[in-house]
Amino acid sequence: MNLSPAATAERPGDRWPFWSILVVDDEPGMRNFLVKSLAPRCHQVLEAGNADQGAQRLRTHHVDLVILDVSLPGKNGVVWLKELREQGFSGDVILITAFADLETAIEALRAGASDFILKPFRMPQILNAVRHCWERSRLVRENYILRRGEAAGAAPRGGLVGSSAAMERLWQSVCRAAAVHSTVLLQGESGTGKELVARALHALGTRSQGPFVPVNCASMSPELIESELFGHAKGSFTGATRARDGLFHYAQGGTLFLDEVADLPPAVQSTLLRALEDLKIRPVGSEQLVPVDVRIIAATNRHLPDDVAQGRFRKDLYYRLQVVELALPPLREHKQDIPELVQHFMARMAPALGVEPLELGPTELAFLTRYDWPGNVRELRNLIERSLILGALNVSALYAQPAPARLTTAGGQPTDLHALEKQHILSVLDSVQGDKTRAAQLLGISRRTLERRVAEWSVA
């Protein structure tokens, strides 16, 4: 090994701020050299003199990379590496040795080694090997995030469309909240664009180069949601055949967006509160406490104070999430933005669908602005998409019967929007033979919102 400053000079990319590394070598001088060289470049460097000590470190600490000597007293490095893989360790392992032949190298790679380095080595060799492991890990994380959903394309003002006073106030609040690291709670009806606002907060903040990881808490089973968020150890529950990192891990250095946070089970609410307060998580079935550096943005279409009062949501977690609280206006409160939203959706979707944008005149826009939009902006977007496919504004999707003529006149009496809304929703329900899940999808609202509207009409 080479201890000269030139050999250990830092190069671009030689920093891994969220990584923990374990050095396992029976030579104190080698351990000391590696620890001193790596510690300034990563979150934490642990050390051990043999496989048993290394196993103890792994039981109590999260480790992303192991630098492992082959020739150890007792259990050698290759044998322990095989055991680690069988036990579900998914981190990278770089093997180092002074006595190696081709057979040993092949055995090491078959056992799951990420790299194999011969002693004596120069520090740049180790740094290159660590960098390659980091890059592989980064690509795995990015691919995982992409599989969960493509990031929204760049758009002016973070994609928030509209110049009404309500949207201007929202945009100003987003800009202020993006500049800090505090948790943010977004409250608004289904379809008002809570994820879009969360992405804008991420893109405008200092974590914009980190990952944005969205998760819908209502879509995951209560039995698995804790594992999804915090990860789990091998054998922690039936079917856990290997260890797995959770979404907190994949969001390191970035933002974790918890949509429909009100649907979290009580036990997970308690675990989330502890994670927010301690900035550490404990994977299910593990003794490890893993440090996390993640900004939390939560969202719900329910009135959380009511859930707190009824004991469905922890009061302390509510206060922890609402450090910054933003209320998203429903579309019926800023209908003057509808023409601008229509143009925005046309411009984005027409090329993707391979069709020409529609020309909407005052009459068609009057139909749109008189409607109450229970599904908010999502329902408007769905309408524009259907209309582009059909080649004309799909007015029948809003009005079960032809729209009243007075909608086309400036001096006519106002339309009963509540009656039109009821008529439209009941028509959609009838068209799908009462399938509320499918009807909610077509309307662009949640099934819970649909059921609440129908129940209100039944009472009436």
Characterization of this structure:
There is one protein chain. The chain starts with a helix and ends with a helix. The longest helix is centred in the N-terminal third of the chain and has 25 residues, at 123-147. It has a 5-stranded parallel beta sheet, with helices on both faces. 45% of the residues lie in helices and 13% in strands. The chain has helices at residues 5-8, 28-38, 51-60, 77-86, 102-111, 123-147, 165-178, 194-204, 225-230, 247-250, 266-278, 304-309, 315-321, 338-353, 362-370, 376-390, 417-431, 436-443, 447-459; strands spanning 16-24, 42-48, 65-69, 92-97, 115-118, 184-187, 212-216, 255-259, 280-281, 290-291, 295-300, 324-327. With 460 residues, the protein is α/β, with parallel strands linked by helices. It has 19 helices and 12 strands. It is elongated and about 85 Å long.
